[in-house]
Amino acid sequence: MKNKKIICLLSMILIAMSLQLSYGDDWYHDYGDYYKVFNVKNGDKLFDTAREVTKGDQYLSEDNKMYKVVRVNETSKTAYAEFIEDVTLPEINEVAYEEIVFALRNNIGLENLVANEEDRKVGIYCSHSAESYVPTDGTESEEGGGGILKVAESLQKGFQNNGVKAIFDNTNHVPHDAGAYKRSRRTAVQLMRDNGLNTLVDVHRDAVPAEAYLADINGEPASKVRLVVGRRNQNFKANEEMAWKVKSVADKMYPGLIKDIFYAGGGYNQDLTPKAMLLEMGTYEHTRERAEKSSQYISEAIATALFGGTFKDNQEGDTEQAKPQQESNAGSGTGIAALLAVIGGGGILFLFLSSGGKEWKSKISNFKDEFKSFLGRRKK
């Protein structure tokens, strides 16, 4: 009987540990193993992604049609989505937009056109810092720091050229696993605290075939950009609104630059601020130079959308400054609840094994009476 007790306790501990260790915003598969998402009505392919796809995820296409994932086959890595609605993006103030574009294109910069310099700050980091571009970097992943860091540096320069103070933290967050976002969360919090900023950009690249991201913009080879909005975070609506604004400006400024917006099931540390975004800068099968070129374009679009007073109701001022939360996993409440459930279930199993089938019901009944008594004392 003593051995049974020990085995039961060890099982409870292992289950609890697995719950904590397996928590993560994403779990990427082997290269070449990605999800294909189809229109449930006609079978046409909507998009590919190396991110995990779950039922309830949403997708805004390049032509602003919203879809919702209704069925997922994890074995075949296929999913099906149904059309929801046509989306109207935030309306641009044409006068303000033309002034901003003139300033940016003539090297005047936002600093000479827009006030509130203290708000024109962006923090940049890479949760998956090993990501690389095979044709340029010779590998899809480099543990010591991949080509994605070069793309992030290019994005930083683009912001700075447009009058936005950009701080890039190149901290390495390897390995590329389910814990990467927990490690990069510390970096994001540090960026906010040390620099007094509330705009964060997490730079990634996808892991699907190159043709999904190839683009030609202004006659030059570039990559398309996907915006990823995490559905599991308290700032979802604000993050979505910001993504819509960026797409609205980019569609006008550089048509074809924004590939789409994927509403994935994770949080991606976007609960830290209403002004958080995740960029997929192309994919691993095309050159890094394409992504670096697009980083210049997207930095201009983001600067215009967030700091240029570009929208008719001046919506960019509607979001109050966010305060970074503590360095903890987003969604940890759910994990704790699950952990308590497992411990409770394990406790029942332990009672059964330790006392035999005839006595365990009696022990549970006594426990319930004690618990009710405890709650009664707490209410007084």
Automatic annotation (TrEMBL):
Chain coiled-coil ranges: none
Leader peptide range in chain numbering: 1-23
Keyword Transmembrane: yes
Segments traversing the membrane: 333-353
The keyword Glycoprotein is annotated on this UniProt entry: no
Keyword list, A-Z: Membrane, Signal, Transmembrane, Transmembrane helix
Highest taxon of the lineage: Bacteria
UniProt protein name: Stage II sporulation protein P
Classification lineage: Bacteria, Bacillati, Bacillota, Clostridia, Peptostreptococcales
